[in-house]
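Example 3.2
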Amino acid sequence: MDNSLINAVKSIFREDRRHALANTMGETPLRVDQSLDAIIPILLVALQRKDKNQLQSILMKAEARFTAQDPPLPSTTSIDTTAISANAEQELLEDITANNSAYISDSLHQYLGIEGANVHTLVIAVLPAIFSAISKGGQQWDVDYVKGLLDNNQDDFLAQVPADLAPVVVNTDGDSGLHNSVPPATPADAIVDPTHTSPPQHATTEPTPVHTPESVKKATKNKGIWWLLILVFIVALWVVFGRGCTGQSSTETATDTSTVQ
């Protein structure tokens, strides 16, 4: 996927400059091209993930440091000047990567298969090219403009980062907000068959019994009826068995009287 901003950065590295970089590092131009394809989007993502205050500070340093549109090539002709430039650019790199430049360089070294020192040389060479592209050749350093430009191209930047270097992108700043670009892993127990539709489950709740004065009165009334029935039953038993015993006693008395006569 092509991106105009990434292409603008790459276009600054003309063929003659890529060959010069390759000769300086002892690498092939093809290897330099492959390295630039990985380094450029990583640094752009790191810049895009800065807040306005952080980006403003970086832009001020970059504007003071870079005055030409084309990036300077690594040179050993002026040791003092090179040392001063290297220190300024290294400080700028640490600001961009939140002091993770060593980790990023090591990851690029393992991925690209080139010397760590050469990786660092390429990263430093990319910096002025990036700032030239995002500032319209050094003419537009307004933080709102640059932030908007970077935000609008965020998805393309991420798409250009090789998959094996995704952890490098996550570690380009110190806060946890950077992890938003990495989708969270889905737990195994959360994976369901999308074709399966379960009927809605309606929970049923047993009503809580409420003792109203009416229900209490009704219960008391029912209890009184039972006591009355028991009392009637006892009276009935007394009448039946009591009368039987009385009749028998009267008969025996009559018999005894006739015998005496």
